Amino acid sequence: MKSLLQTRDTRLRRVFLIGVELKSRTAADIRESLAELAELAETAGAQIAGEGVQKMAAPVAATYLGPGKAEEFAQHCKANGVDAVVFDDELSPAQTRNLEKIFGCKIMDRTALILEIFGQRARTREGKLQIEHAQLQYLLPRLTRFWSHLSRQRGSTGSIGGEGESQLEADRRKISERIEKISSELDKVRRQRETQRAGRQRSQWPLASIVGYTNAGKSTLLNALTGSGVLAEDKLFATLDPTTRRLRLPTNQNVLLTDTVGFIKKLPHGLVEAFKATLEEVVQADLLLHVVDVSHPQAAEQIVAVDAVLAEIGAAEKPVLMVFNKMDQISGAGGLNRLREAYPHSVAISARTGEGMGPLLAELGTRLRPIREFLDLRVPQEKAAVIARIHAVGQVVTRRYSGRNARFKVRIPPHLHAEFAPFVVE
Ligand SMILES: Nc1nc2c(ncn2[C@@H]2O[C@H](COP(=O)(O)OP(=O)(O)OP(=O)(O)O)[C@@H](O)[C@H]2O)c(=O)[nH]1
Ligand SMILES: [Mg+2]
C-alpha cells in the first residue's frame, strides 16, 4: 500500500536548529540537548546550517520565541538558504503556523523530526502503519501550505495551482479517512501478533528484553550474545522492529532475548502510544536488561529518560538488570563507579570487545533462576478472577481439573509470587 506521507521527496536538506534557555534549564543542558537534536537531524539526512539559542523567562504564547529574536533568526535563515527550522521543544499548531509566516520556510519541532526518522526507517508492515498513524495525527492540526506536497503526491490533485483553504480542507478530510483506515489495519495486524505471542507463551523459556537509550549498544549486545546479525550502527534509532533470539546460558538455561526500539528524551507521546504494541515485548518480559552507554556525558540523564518511558508503557515494576556498556571507551572510571554504587547488582561490559560478558551471563543466570521455578497452584473453580489472572500473567504448563478445584503448573514472574501464595500447593 502506498503511504500518504512519502519522505523521499521531502527529505530535509539544510536545517537551522533553535533552542530556548529557560530558567529551569542550564546552558549546559541546552547545549547537550541541541547536540542531540543535531544528531537527530543528521540521522534524518539533513545538513546543519547553524543553531541559535534564546534566553528567556518563558516562551511567548504566539510565536514561542520573542518577536525580535524570531525576526533576527529568520533573516539569518533566509540569507543562508535554510529549508527548515527545527525547534528543540514541542510547538503548538498555532505557534508552528505563526513561525512559518515569519521564517517563510518549514517549521518543525523535535517530535516532527523523530517522526521523520521513524518514517524513513520503518521496515515491517506493522512498523510502517504505526509510524504513519503517529505522523498523520501529528500532522492533522498542523497542516499548512508547507506540508501540502502530501496531497499532490496522491496524483489525483495534480492540477491544483493555488493552495487555498479548500485544498487544505480536502487534505484534512483525506488524512482523517486514512487515519481511520490505518487504525483498522493495525487492529488486524495486532490480532495476528497476539496469536503468535500466545504460541510463544506456551514455551517455558523466560523472556528478557533489552531496553535503553538510543545508540546505547542494545543491538550490538544482542549480536554479541547470540551471534545474530541485527543491524547496529552509530545512528539514532537504528532499530525499530523487535528481534527475538534464543540464548543458552552456561547453566544450560534457555532465555529468549529481545532487542527493540531505543528510547530518547522528549519521546513524542503519540509515538509511545503507536509503539505500545511493539513494546509489548517489554511489558511481557520477565527481566529487562537496561543497557547504558557509560561513555556518554549524559548517561545519568539517559537512564532517567528510559525509566520515564518504561513507566509510560506500564513496565516500571519489572525487575531490571543494569548493563553499563562501552566501558572500553571511558577515560576515568569515576562516573562508572558512581553508577555501579547506585545500582548494586549491575554489570559493566563492552559489547564491542566482549569484555564483561562472563559476569553478565552469570548475573543473567542468577536473575532468571527463580523464574524457572514453577508454581503448583490449586484454585477453586469458582475463583474465576484468579484463574483469569493466572493466564494473564503466567505461562500455564499443565492444567487439570479435579472436583471443585483447578490445578495449575505455571511459570509466574517472581515479583508476582506473593499474589498467588494462598493457592500454592506445598
Ligand atoms: N566503543 C564501543 N562502541 C560500542 C559498544 N557497543 C556498541 N557500540 C557502538 O555504538 C553504536 C550503536 O550501537 P547499536 O548496537 O546500534 O545501539 P542500539 O542501542 O541498538 O541503538 P538504536 O537501535 O539506534 O537505538 C554502534 O556504532 C556500535 O558499534 C561498545 O561496547 N564499545
Ligand atoms: Mg539497535
Polypeptide structure, described:
The chain is α/β, with parallel strands linked by helices and 426 residues long. The protein has 3 domains: 145 residues, Rossmann fold (3-Layer(aba) Sandwich); 169 residues, 3-Layer(aba) Sandwich (Rossmann fold); 51 residues. The protein is built from 15 helices and 13 strands. The strands form 3 sheets. A 6-stranded mixed beta sheet has the order 6-7-5-8-9-10, sandwiched between helices. A 4-stranded parallel beta sheet has the order 2-1-3-4, with helices on both faces. A hairpin with a 5-residue loop joins strand 6 and strand 7. The N and C termini lie far apart (56 Å). The chain binds guanosine-5'-triphosphate and magnesium ion. The site of guanosine-5'-triphosphate has 23 residues, from helix 8.
Largest sheet composition = 6 strands, mixed
Q: What is the fourth-level CATH superfamily of the largest domain?
A: P-loop containing nucleotide triphosphate hydrolases
Radius of gyration: 25 Å
The end-to-end span amounts to 56 Å
- Percent range of helical residues: 40-55%
State which percent range the strand residues make up: 15-25%
**Do you know the CATH architecture of the largest domain?**
3-Layer(aba) Sandwich
Q: Give the spatial strand order of the biggest sheet.
A: 6-7-5-8-9-10
CATH-defined fold name of the largest domain? Rossmann fold
How many domains make up the coordinates? 3
Number of strands: 13
The small molecules bound here are: guanosine-5'-triphosphate, magnesium ion
